[in-house]
Amino acid sequence: MPDKPKNISTDxxxxxxxxxxxxxxxxxxxxxxxxxxxxxxGLLGRADKKPRKGISGHxxxxxxxxxxxxxxxxxxxxxxxxxxxxxxxASTSKREAVLxxxxxxxxxxxxxxxxxxxxxxxxxxxxxxxxxxxxNQAIExxxxxxxxxxxxxxxxxxxxxxxxxxxxxxxxxxxxxxxxYLHYNTGLHxxxxxSKLALLLEDLLSNAxxxxxxxxxxxxxxxxxxxxxxxxxxxxxxxxxxxxxxIVFLGTxxxxxxxxxxxxxxNHIVEINRYSAPFSRLxxxxxSGITDLRYGNLVEHDWEERxxxxxxxDQRTPIPLPEGVACFAIAATKSEAPGxxxxxxxxxxxxxxxxxxxQHKNTVLELExxxxxxxxxxQMNHWDLLNHAxxxxxxxxxxxxxxx
Length: 404
Fold this sequence. Notes:
With about 400 residues, the chain is of the alpha/beta class. It has two domains: about 110 residues, no CATH class; about 220 residues, Rossmann fold (3-Layer(aba) Sandwich). It has 14 helices and ten strands. β4 and β5 form a beta hairpin. The longest helix has about 35 residues. The chain is globular, with a radius of gyration of 23 Å.
């Protein structure tokens, strides 16, 4: 039998490790429920987190041990996973989408456990690591106009192509940009990805033609990562920041996303009751990247020394838009007409209009996009921002007007 492709073998080993972790995690929840219900200590109060003694404690400990020992027996199940990820073509969009979703939800756990399913940050073209020499030739042909596209949470660089449209390729064809796509683990803290992107851009630009000018096109979380990268580039005196001309934000939750705020509130409510408290661990199966979306955290100080699952207010460090850079914001809403419910509560389904346009009641947190640098698309959802003709037309109009 021929050997499996190397990265499929890696996928299977990583999935096996992740499956074992999940079984042990669920077993821990059941054990905690057992402890709580067996305590009869009143309706309210926190669950006892001490390991149970005696026979029941031995049983739970044994389950964990057996799970570790029988990990090799999961090969049949993982073989099916391998087929789903695409054994014949390990670079299929289906496989990429699965890995991106796993990294988006559990990416920090994958890194902490050194799971091979973790996605490394890199620049890619057509789903493959960028070749610096080839990119440099493209930049020279584009008169130095480099377009860097940064995808959103639980997504990947291939998903810029939606319904046979890719903003990057279209801007290359019509305006002559040289596009390059960032691929990264969206489950890590935004500040971690921001600092990594700052260094990655510094390395890329140090080997690029001297006349290279950068335009960032960022969707959703990608906009927060881009702003974080600008902050860390400034802290580290990265030279590429001086080569950055323009940033276009598509549906970026500059002031957070309502779904993560709601998830945090539900987690708090469930944790109050000692009988439901163990299930709060199920609600905590979401990555650092996702919890950063609650308020739009950009820097390490926003989350360090804090329990990211606890209920607390917006304690972000105010980070303004980068100076000397033309910044544009596009928001979308499902609503046909202006209204508080449609624009301020629902928005595009994931991000509200004020958040996407950087608007905030606290003037310290307000992002000062000029009115002419804001655009709102109606009867659109969060994903339509990737391919809607009106969105592309507005992006093109702005970039045509930016002086060379």
